[in-house]
Amino acid sequence: MTQRQIPKWSELKPLLRTKPITTNPTERRLQKALTIADLREVAKRRTPRSVFDYTDGAAEAEISLRRARNLFLQIELQPSVLRNVAEVDTTTTMLGKASALPFAFAPTGFTRMMNHEGESAVVRVAERAGIPYGLSTMGTTSIEDVAEAGPHARKWFQLYVWKDRAAGEDLVKRAAAAGYEALMLTVDVPVAGARLRDVRNGFTIPPSLTAKTVLDAALHPAWWMNLLTTAPLTFASLSEWDGTVAELLNALFDPTMTTEDLAWLRSIWDGPLIVKGVQTVADARRLVDAGADAIVLSNHGGRQLDRAPTPLRLLPDVVSAVGDKTEVYLDTGIMSGADVVAALALGADACLVGRAYLYGLMAGGERGVARATQILATEIVRTMQLLGVRSVSELDPGHVRLP
């Protein structure tokens, strides 16, 4: 029979531990977020539905996005044991320069809609983390203001080709004058994808004050207060717009652009050129032959053509075809550091993350972006250690099994 006794204070005392009290509510929220999925849940609670859905959603039935995420989830990692992994080097090379982590912050449109701190907050985190940041043509902070916010950050300017080529040329020249390192041409938006969540939510730029949004304001007062009491949205590339995102894209972007137009772009930009939105091996070869310094395998986060090729599935074939001629990056579906490691093992030189840091931004502004970066970095290091690799260069296809 078990003998019981009343514990003595001397036995209980070592078990009693108090946690430091965090008085700042933002810090409390972020400390509890252990994964990007956790940040997503915080973002969903703190952001108006239409804004959250703009970030979280994809095109039509959102099949492309689900397939991308599911493929990452189905990957089987192949560890090698009994390796000295006390120290892990996450440094990689992007466009011939060192990046402290093997990913960059992807360009995202209308970032100050997610949180009033916007692009300036993101570039400051990128500067501290030692990784590149891409400012979107459809950003809500000017080229010059982003440069001022992150003077020592590696800044890339993402360009859509406009019907008004003179306006596009002006943007390129402004980026060059402001010290941007590279130009990222996005080629998968000849017309806007059918982003049905935005249509159903009546989402406009900026948000319209309707009965629905006024009711939503009561549920998210801090977000609306920040929107209404900070400076009006300033677009990186245009003065103002009053309409839906799809209407804006279709009004501005040139669906007639072809590979031959890259020569025009080269005539006005002499720095590195990244082409984003590559979805076939044939196009990868064509763009490398046309002079791309790097390509991004991407289906625009599933936001353009639904049922488009899944970038991770395409990656090994593209690397085999052009990996010795250009740098190959990958985006779409990345929600963890393990996802980044898997892409690197399959041959990507680096990854771009977008939604992951936007969830952090919505959850807690600049501190939320920093938390997202910390989560991804920690997961990358731990995954590499458990795989038995000490540097990014040691990752190879033998560490990954695709379904």
TrEMBL record:
InterPro entries: Aldolase_TIM, Alpha-hydoxy_acid_DH_FMN, FMN-dep_DH, FMN_HAD, FMN_hydac_DH_AS. PROSITE patterns: FMN_HYDROXY_ACID_DH_1, FMN_HYDROXY_ACID_DH_2. Pfam families: FMN_dh. It comes from the Bacteria. Residues 28-403 form the FMN hydroxy acid dehydrogenase domain. GO terms for molecular function: FMN binding; oxidoreductase activity, acting on CH-OH group of donors. Glyoxylate binds at Y54, Y160, R195, H300, R303. Its cofactor is FMN. The keyword Protein biosynthesis does not apply. The active site is at H300. Keywords: Flavoprotein, FMN, Oxidoreductase. Belongs to the FMN-dependent alpha-hydroxy acid dehydrogenase family. This is Alpha-hydroxy-acid oxidizing protein. It comes from Phytoactinopolyspora alkaliphila. The lineage of its organism: Bacteria, Bacillati, Actinomycetota, Actinomycetes, Jiangellales.
